[in-house]
Fold each of these.
Amino acid sequence: MEKTAGYDPSFAQEVFENVDAGEEIRMCMNCGVCAGSCPLSLRMDYPPRQIFQMIRAGKRDAVLNANSIMLCTSCYTCIVRCPRSIPVMDVMHGLAHYAIRQGILTRRDTASFGREFWKQVYKLGRIDEKDLPRRVFFSAGIVEGIKNTIKYMDMGLKLLLHRRMKLLPERKIKGIQSLRKMLDKAAEMGKGGARA
Amino acid sequence: MKYFLYWGCSLEGTGANFLVSLKPVCEALGMEFEEIKDWNCCGASVSYAGANDLSIKVLNARNLALAEAGAGYDIVAPCSSCYVQMIKVNHEIQEDPELLARVNECLGEGGLHYNGSLRVRHIQDVLYNDVGLDGIRKRVVKSLNGLKVAGYVGCQSVRPYGEYDSVNKPVVQDRLLAALGADPVPFPSKIRCCGSGIFLPEIDYCLELVKNILEDALRHGARLISTVCPMCAMNLEMYQERINEKYGTNFDVPIVYLTQLMAVSFGMDLKKDAALQYNVIPPEEILQSAIGH
């Protein structure tokens, strides 16, 4: 990508309207404290500071395909250090949600981990810690699933031996039906993914 | 001192040693807990992949509404992810009446309503501010006798509001450790992230984060690392073997919950109360030599 670019508000407008916390980037002064604080910024295609500037430059494809928006560990360091009180983490989560809703899966494993996590929340109201990795492993196909199951078998067994794995499957919470109604309403009322 | 205890999904499984040790310790300190009836998962840090922000807020508001409709005590969340999710939603709701109205519109679909009256607190907060260091010292019958411990605070347990401790230079865990007779070592990585919820899918990047944290603790002389977060405990303990394979290191450091150390120093049963047998890297030997058995 070229080093300099003019402002192009079209994508910024899309972000303000459709991405959770997207409007917060208006306050960004590009100081780079978020980039310097982020535990995984060195692994990112572009650190958060640059992502925000690229949004202002209208670089839609580069932003939504950047691995950056999927590499947030949710440590809140950027949030507590931003001198403009921008919830940087929330914006990154919002962008990740938006990109996934458009079918962009830059970090496939992380995206499927998050999606399977939410599916369990919706299905049970709780997380089944045995079932979740299994679903993530097999979401990439049966061969990958078996490979990963073998790869992590030792850890699963150790946790089991040390009583840190529930034996029985997790049961639905009693109010699951009403929880789902609440979540359906929130999915409909909230921002994030309107163009999907 | 009565509270709602919102322990969350992990503390029934991978973080079981936290919950098992927390209950007798808090009881001994005069705290009484009630469960939030029919609580749900907080959504942790990865739900954004499948849900928009309002859904995650509503998910947490359901627990808040259930607690408010009950006895309305402060909610204590020992899991840092549960804590940060719940306190964030609670704050945002309390500051923004319009958001509260939207959340309530969704809660209303299931016949619930939240007024925003509750306080969400971390276990370190109530131990430090409600029980107090003196209250804890009084219970110590087997001092940890200067055992060098690295107090690993992690990220989420003091953030984002810094309600009871600094978000950049936290001190509370070190003070609690010192009250048990331990010697908390200087530990610059105490708030460096371990990779948290995306550790498993991003293991290639996250192993290095944990390696740096373990190295820092050992460099400063720690024999044990204490934590108050089930993700930190899991990532720091369960991946040491893989780090050793990848980097040719030789890590074998026990990772214990603060409440396990409290149970030990309170002279409680090492299995039943301190739950030491739940740890995959055994801490017994180090702890027993510290307390003199």
Note: The first strand of chain B starts at residue 2 and ends at 5.
Amino acid sequence: MTSNGLLSVENLHLYFRTLKGPVQAVDGVSLTLQRGRTVVVVGESGCGKTSLGRAILRLLPRNVHTYTGKVWLNGLDVMTLSEEQFRKQVRWIRIALVPQAAMNSLNPVLRVGDQVAEPLIIHGRAHTSEEARKSAAEVFRHVGVPIDFLDRYPFELSGGMRQRVALAMALITQPDLIILDEPTSALDVLTQANIMNVLKTIKRELGMSFFLITHDIATSSELADDAAVMYAGQVVETSRAGQFFKEPLHPYSRLLMASVPTLHDDKALGFIPGQPPSLINPPTGCRFADRCPARFHKCSEEPPLFTVDSDRLVKCWLYA
Amino acid sequence: MNATTSDGALLSVRGLHTCFELRRWGFIRVGHVRALDGVSFELGRGEAVAIVGESGSGKSTLAKTILGLHLPTKGEIFFDGRTVRGQEDLQWYRSHVGYVQQDPYGALPPFMNVQRILEEPLLINGVTPKERRLYRINKVLDEVKLTPVDDFLPRFPHMLSGGQQQRLVVARAMILEPQLIVADEPVSMLDASVRVEILQLLRGLQARHNLSLIYITHDLSTVRYFCERVFVMYGGKIIEQARVGQLIDSPRHPYTQALLAAIPDPDPANATRIRPVPAGEPPSLLHPPSGCRFHPRCPAFMKGICEVEVPPDFEPSSGHMVACYLYDPSIEQMRRGVSRA
């Protein structure tokens, strides 16, 4: 199957080798993303959302145990590409990444303008440094960094500005898709709102597609067109954002939504008792069953993804 | 001098300044970072207040100064009717104040097990015999719901989940039966699903033991579930203080208004609108702007007033203090006159 979407992930598995056995960080994940849209992946820490982003971009550590599945990008299964082909054709050319704590991932001894221009030179998109610099100035304008910051070092920039520079670095090769891994989690409220405004503008002006990985549900609603909820290495629910934020389906998504404090409603906050299961030997049935208030006998078997309302998918027996 | 504090106040802070000296090559004085610039407030017994601000607003410095970890450059701290000064005062004072740190994993010594971590403060404060210490440890672990207690006693911090680690930090803060707890961003490192649990735990302890609580956070949305009063800090000063409902429903200071407008609720409609955010960055504390610290970014900036003098506190409605000239009655009159002419 080739999907009509920009990115389509099918049955992706990523296991890591450890002394205690394989850790099933990403376990059979399928997702589709249409061009110009944003999908948010939400989940608690340790649910495999960062691993999913890294698996799509094939940025893997050395202790990979299993790495299988299909990743379709514009109708091409990029999993069949060799490492060198992938580096030349996909990574940072078609898909770019703004890593977690991106503001601390800048090289402290290089001027930010040179860092931002580096992918162009490495991929042979710019032949002279003059040309690369011009492109860097162009993306700086998009992300709202003053042009005279090109010659500054990262330590001279505030956190919000560094985050914008990291975003500029992802934008410079004009990729089809940018993976944002917790783009605002270490920032102040005002800076966070600012970065979200920048992302919205880029989405509108350049038609950029985003794959947003976050644990912050309230902030994720700022950018989301589609939402996917991950729990213990699996996607347990996918919906359009409009439906998801109003009425999540999976018991886990509901509890997660109930734990988000809101400024103006006077709702009682809830929390989810217990802890997520270990990903080394996860339970055989539904992985959320132990913490689920709606558990019943069926839950000892693994639920498939059920379709609800024609375009929502939920991995829960309640919707059988 | 031993000024008496007003009735019922457990902690009273007067004109607190904390400066850090900046030096080059270790001896040339370059300047002062004025992290706290004249902070005064009173905290009643059994009262929970939140201190809200962005990074660099001085909220953590305030916490650490209150805890006695930084010595104030100027100003005084009264606790329980006594001035806190000098080393002896400090030891007495610290045994009555608990500290809940931001990052639980960083705050717990990795080579000590739970029992040892909790026993340490008791040993330092000379609680004997051992039975009494063990009784206290059991009781406090039970209170933070790390049960069964015997399972947890021999564990090391890395064997606990993030939420459990933070409970242990709360237990350690509670072990000496303090009267005041200072919680510095106690949930910012935790997952959304665990946050509420820790906040409810702290709230429960506070109510049960009639503790006073200072909750320091950058996240205004958790404050309403937790505190009676809120202080908003900006550039080393408290710029607005009010009851939680007052502040959220009718924020007065332009900065507080911007801060509240920037906080999203989970709502799909967010994706279609651009939020208004004041331009610029938080002020440098080395060379703070003249007058009101917020004036370079302020949408309601009044030339000739705001950049000239530091605004004092005005009280536009009872119990609601705001340091902004917009609420100065005389200036308000003047503006009305101008608009009429």
Note: The longest strand of chain A covers residues 23-33.
Amino acid sequence: MKRDARRLVVLFLLPACVVYAVLFVYPVISSLLLSLYDWDGFTQQRHFVGLGNFTRLLGDDPIFWTALKHNAYLLSVPTAIILAGALFFAAALTSGIRGARFFRITYFFPNVMSMVAITLLWSFIYNPSFGLLNAVIRPFQHGKSATVWLDPNHIMPSLVAPIVWCALGFYLVLFLAGMENIPSSFYDAAKVDGANAWQQFRSITMPLMWDVITVAVVFLVIGGLRIFDLIYVMALGYPNEQSQVISTYLYEQAFTNAHMGYGIAIAVVLFVLVFAATAIAMRLMRREQVEY
Amino acid sequence: MAASTRARPVGRLFGLGALYVVLATYAAAVVLPMVWLFYTSLKNNEEIFASAWRLPHVPHWENFVSAWVRAGIGRYFLNSVLVTTISVALILLVSAMAAYALTRFRFRGNRVIFYAFLAGLMVPSQLALVPLFFLVNGMGLLDTYAGLILVYIAFSLPFTVFVLSGFFRTLPHELAEAALIDGCTQIQAFWRVMLPLAKPGLVTAAIFNFLGIWNEYLFALVMISSERLRTLPLGLANLLMVTHYENDWGALFAGLVMVMIPTLAVYCLLQGQITKGITVGALKG
């Protein structure tokens, strides 16, 4: 390599590598090490506790397991609804109906809003005194008292709607792109063979879309594990046991209770879960590649 | 192509009329909350609590003044513009340089560096959160935009380097070579020839980074503590918490409307680019 080329490589890589090494790689590695300490963050005293944080977390912390259960709920229920909905809408919008562009553009819009804005909007919708939802369903309730959607009994299902509302359009666009790549001659041939609409969807659309669906499942599962803004803001900064998730519990332990080592241990568990969930999803969804 | 896709079967399975009802219902579920939000932002507290459906007697525009000035949405908005613009510009510059060096030249460690960036895509930002707080504090940059922007750059690098590498890899090397023969330096060849050719990639990366940083909450929550430095998501979340005590709901509705209008405007302008970007990013990546 010529001298000026070598100089360019060094010059061009240096800013990215320095920022990345100092502000990404270093904190990540610190986390892995600091999770082995008991540390309040403000004094210099750190007590090495080995895997103590993890044994306490996994063996002796009911709140962590509750939080994990909530994450499991929020990554499975919305994922199922979003996949089914987005696949259905994508199939509908590629069937050549009028207004497909309008529906696509409308459905996608919530995806560009910030999660904080979406949370505000939905906290208005769910509000028991002036909320839109109770106003919509009042005629069907026959005088029953208004539902408090964010109370302990309803909050988990209530959190599903904003997640679906925000994400569905994204996966619709993703699936639309995948479906538009399928040559329509495949469907023509199937029709000649007498396959009905459902058979065509199952035998042509699904197998050819499998890779795209796998990507979607991985994104949704990771999103469900990392969820923070919606829960934290909906709970006005203080999620309780009814809505606590891993990320909010991590934040609470580290920054509210000053249990830094413990908070970091929660972050490490979150990382392992993200990694494992991705691997499992890829593995479960693995099928023979269909070339076309 | 459009004509031949017409033969797809879903319409016939459900009946075209039923299909439109389903499509319109979901469209209403998206649009209705926003319409409701817009007209409720013009009601006073009394009207808000009286009925969710009824339109305001007279539009209470003072809600918007109150949100913009007293609740600080105006300041938070400008803060977000500042942080997001600087962050995205720097991310694009730093990432484009790195991606160009990694794809255009062969040298020892090339692969290792590329995969080190790529591996970052698998790491949830929460994993770095706590040490990052102390690191930025140690640098004296806690509660400053410099600190927040540096963090945003670091955490945008994996995605942006990945996307831009994909674009630079498709550009023919001969173009840069020709520029060198014409007397350009290596840097000029990058700046004048190769970077403009990577524009589609830069646009895609800019849009996604812009949306991500404009909407970012967790890092800002941890890094920024001063009221006057709050970004829009921080300010908005805070406004919600405050309203539960102060009870000025009209202003909160108005604040949310003001946050949504620019988003809606940008979306109308760029929705084609955004949806194309998703397709390129997810299907090719």
Note: Residues 1-7 of chain B have pLDDT under 50 and may be disordered.
